[in-house]
Amino acid sequence: MKMYVTSVLLLAATASFANCSGGDSTKAMKTNTAIIADADNAGLKLPSGFGALKVAENVGRARHLTVTPQGNVYVKSSKLVDGKGILEVKVNASGKGEVVKSFGTFTGTGITIKNGYLYACSDEQVFRYKLDANNGVINADAPEVVITGLINRRQHENKTVALDDAGNIYVNIGAFSNSCQEKDRSNGSKGMMPCPVLDSAGGIWKFKADKLNQTYGDGVRYATGLRNVVGLHWNTQTNSLFVMQHGRDQLYQNWPQFYDSLASAELPSECMFEVKQGSNCGWPYTYYNHLLGKKMVAPEYGGDGKKVSEDPAFQNPAAAYPGHMAPNDILFYTGNQFPEKYKNGAFIAFHGSWNRAPLPQKGYFVVFQPFKNGKPSGDWEIFADGFSGKEVVTSTRSAEHRPCGLSQGPDGSLYVSDDSKGTIYRILHSGK
Amino acid sequence: MKKVFLITALSVTALLCVVAQVKKPQPKVAVNNPAASIERGKAVYQKECLSCHQADGGGVPHLNPPLYESTNVVGDKKKIIAVVLRGMTDRVPIDGEYYSNNMAPHPELTNVQIADVLTFIRASWGNKASIVTPAEVQAVRGVKKK
Prior knowledge:
- The complex is a heterodimer of chains A (432) and B (146).
- Chain A is mainly beta and 432 residues long.
- Chain A has helices spanning 251-254, 261-266, and strands spanning 3-11, 20-23, 28-36, 50-56, 62-67, 73-81, 84-91, 97-103, 111-114, 117-121, 126-130, 144-147, 161-163, 168-173, 203-208, 220-224, 229-235, 240-245, 270-275, 279-280, 286-289, 294-297, 319-321, 327-332, 346-350, 365-369, 371-372, 375-376, 381-384, 403-408, 414-418, 424-429.
- With 146 residues, chain B is an all-alpha fold.
- Chain B has a single domain, classed as Orthogonal Bundle (Cytochrome Bc1 Complex, Chain D, domain 2).
- At the A-B interface, loops of A face helix 3 of B.
């Protein structure tokens, strides 16, 4: 059994760990806490020097999660547990935790902490809860409604949020369509022109983080042409928003004259975009082909699998990944625990594909994407694998665990949520 | 209802004939042979259904419903035929779970193809429900949606 000693910087006022080693000159205490990785590293395959433990299991249908400066975890569940959709996991000194509180009578995906508030999303609204000095929720039964009335038409209904340092909150509103066809997901059905979905969905909307009861008219469409984003993260190094798009499905099923089943398994790419006010990422008119490194015209809009889009209106991705792996979260690593190469790079949780038949399914892992000077630099690599518990996943339901959310702990540990069994993982490095 | 019963009865009779007299030429309406219907239905499934409902019929959690342990699949044939023909976009729970993706309509499939694929599905992954015939598909196809 490996032992991992993590250095936890805690403000003196909030420190309450047993084995404190005293304060330092920055008026903070440096606390050495022995965190013990599970003997099997929680079933994960990790790079050398890393270990993992299961912080907790059966924590609802754990979608996104956020770790407090005190090392406790708030989990957003997409299924109510005893009528509640937010679960607070209190973590002890050995790194193990249990649900101590549950609140919020809504299901959903997004959850994050910013400026003394816990923000949490249903599929139509964004709520916030005031936090106390220890980041405990003050009034769990009376959250404030920050944003309301967001489109939920069943498909791509998940809402998630990121906040910048200028008082803004960004929320994804997924397109209620696969490719904006006249008949969704139907053979040969043409794309609507212009795509009406984009008026109210298929993009990122920007609102004020501290204004209540906002709806579409109070916000701005920040970025469009994004079919479905679940993972988005404000990068404090570049001071910009990065989003992961789920690419469209069924090129072969709907357009067999242009694609074979193998092309349809690999395409289109899952894309990382760095978005700014006014970004247009191309959906549904174009998609990205990472094998060619080109934007392609979608078959619903005159494409044939070969026709490249030269339209400058559509932004190129910052990075692209194999099709259908379903990136459900992205996190820029700013901690000091992991080796230097990880600093300011991106971790991406790929939920795992269902749409790659006849090939085996792919994903069900956490990827590391190296960054340099705020841009992806070098090939992505699998960082944490083995969530599915299978050598080969041929059917989505057979995957035991599916990584869905990411959060960085105060000591630089990486937390991963699993929405299949509700497992909360913590990944640690053995030291510098 | 009587008609359905009659067709089913005829089908069973036809099957018995095929089994008993293997050297006889195949009947013209091959769907009267469930084994052949299932075999053809499997090919239709692989082309039209597998990507969403998966190789093992398990579907995709929260997106596409499973086709085994499913009340709809083994229940009223008219209902499941209508889902294949007209698709499904309603936000309704299926066996207690919600599924996000729309089911595409498949009116372009022939009556025989739909009968075959449903017969295959209703006989696979632990399902043990009766065959679906082209006439039953036609009966639903002919009824305008309310």
